Amino acid sequence: MVDDEGLRAKLAKVEALFRRAGSPGERAAAEAAMGRLHGRLGGSGRRRPEPEVELQFSLPDTWSVRLFVAVCRKHGVRTFRYARQRRTTVMVRTQERFFDRAVWPEYSRLQSELESYFVDVTDHLVERVMGSDGDDSNLDAQPGGPAR
C-alpha cells in the first residue's frame, strides 16, 4: 500500500503538471489524476476504478476520422472498428469520465478549427482561383423535382 507521503508527492507533481498544461486535453487529464489522488488521500479506503465502456462514434468524413483517431491515440485511448462497420465509424473502449473530460473537448476544439480551415480554403479556391462567388442561395429551381 502506498503511504500518504508518497501520494502527496505524486499529487504535487500532478498539480505542477496541471499548472503548466499546454492544451485543454492535458489539463483535463491532469485534473482527473488530481481527483483520483485526492480521493485516495481522503482515507475512505479503496475506491473501485471506473469501468471501461465501449463508445461508438459515427463521424461525417475521413478527415474527422483521422483527427479523432489521432486525438484518441495521443491520450492512450484504444480505437477499433468491428467487421462490416463503415469507414467513418470508430469504436473506443475507455473510462467514460476520462473520455468526456480529456479526449472529447480536445477533439471538438480541433474539429472546429479544421472546419474553419476548410471553409477558408474553399472560399479562397472558389473566389480567387475559379472567379466565382459560389453563392448557392439563388440556384434555379427545376420544376418536377430531380430527373431519374
Task: Explain what this protein looks like in three dimensions.
It is a single chain. A three-stranded antiparallel β-sheet has the order 1-3-2. It has 148 residues and is mainly α. The model has no long low-confidence stretch (mean pLDDT 82). A hairpin with an 8-residue loop joins β2 and β3. The protein has two domains: 48 residues; 82 residues, 2-Layer Sandwich (Alpha-Beta Plaits). The chain is built from four helices and three strands. The termini are far apart.
Give the low-confidence spans: none
Mean pLDDT: 82
The sequence of SSEs as H and E is: HHEHEEH
Radius of gyration: 23 Å
| Main CATH class of the largest domain | Alpha Beta
List keywords for this structure.
148 residues, mainly alpha, Alpha-Beta Plaits, three-stranded antiparallel beta sheet
In brief, what are we looking at here?
With 148 residues, the chain is mainly alpha-helical.
List the helices and strands and how they pair.
Layout: H1 4-19, H2 24-41, E1 52-58, H3 62-74, E2 78-80, E3 89-95, H4 96-129
Antiparallel strand pairs: 1-3, 2-3
